[in-house]
Design goal:
The protein is mainly α and 260 residues long. It has nine helices and two strands. The termini are far apart.
């Protein structure tokens, strides 16, 4: 029964009670016989039945309302639990995304570190005096160290490190340049014979090298220091003929003019 039906039942009961009162007054004035009393008793019984029905319907409505409240509370609890589970899952997804990003970052760092370590042992392409070639990391490091010693003006020590370098890497692409600077270091310490040998080794090993014209001029200088004027003149003439247009060829021309 709905709440409106309960209210209608209640209004019916009230009307019945008022009717009983009216009938009671009427019966006192109009009816004195047994039939009137019986009618009154029947009417009272109907009112009692209506009251009982009203009470039962009211109780039933209260129980229905209580059950509805319990159902709503249970539904709300289920909804709250579902929301909490969704929030938990969302938090887990966000944490998994952070963990995945961290793993990817660590993986990237690891790959980069490995690449750097591998590159330390892999040959690299270098260009020295116009020549491009592959050089081992240790090979490049040792050549740079020898050049650093030479640039400091420590020519005696640079001779040792260049000789050691050439012995350690006999097929190195740095060889022509190393011979050139070794010869210069030897010339600076007035070791003209060894300097002459170094410059000649460069010319023989790489006649098309960028430093060959300078090496030829240096050979002539060594010959002059060793009092081999004839040999120096021949070297300067060959230099002019073989490397025309170079600064070394111009210098050779000037020195030839002084030798005549």
């Amino acid at each position: 029964m709905t709440f409106s039906s309960v209210m209608r039942a209640g209004r019916g009961t009230l009307a019945a009670v008022l009717m009983i009162g009216c009938l009671g007054q009427a019966s006192a004035g109009l009816f004195d016989d047994e039939e009137a009393r019986k009618a009154i008793l029947d009417l009272r019984q109907k009112v009692a039945d209506l009251d009982k029905r009203f009470t039962e319907e009211t109780l039933r409505s209260s129980e229905d309302a209580a059950q509805l409240r319990r159902s709503l509370i249970e539904l709300q609890n289920q909804l709250d639990a579902a929301r909490a589970e969704v929030a938990k899952l969302r938090g887990q997804d966000e944490q998994m995304a952070r963990d995945l990003a961290e793993v990817q970052r660590q993986q990237k760092d690891t790959v980069q570190t490995l690449d750097e370590r591998v590159r330390r042992f892999e040959p690299s392409r270098v260009t020295v005096d116009g020549r491009e070639f592959l050089a081992e990391p240790a090979e490049k490091r040792d050549y740079d160290a020898a050049m650093a010693t030479f640039r400091k003006g420590d020519f005696a020590s640079s001779q040792l490190v260049f000789v050691e370098f050439l012995n350690r890497y006999p097929k190195t692409g740095y060889r022509p340049s190393a011979l050139f600077w070794l010869g210069n270091a030897q010339y600076a310490t007035k070791d003209y014979k060894d300097a002459l040998a170094s410059f000649r080794a460069l010319v023989a090993a790489a006649p098309d090298h960028q430093r060959v014209s300078e090496a030829a001029l240096a050979i002539a200088n060594c010959q002059l220091e060793l009092k081999d004027t004839k040999g120096a003149r021949r070297t300067l003439e060959d230099l002019q003929a073989n490397y025309p247009g170079t600064e070394a060829a111009q210098a050779a021309k000037d020195r030839l003019a002084r030798l005549r």
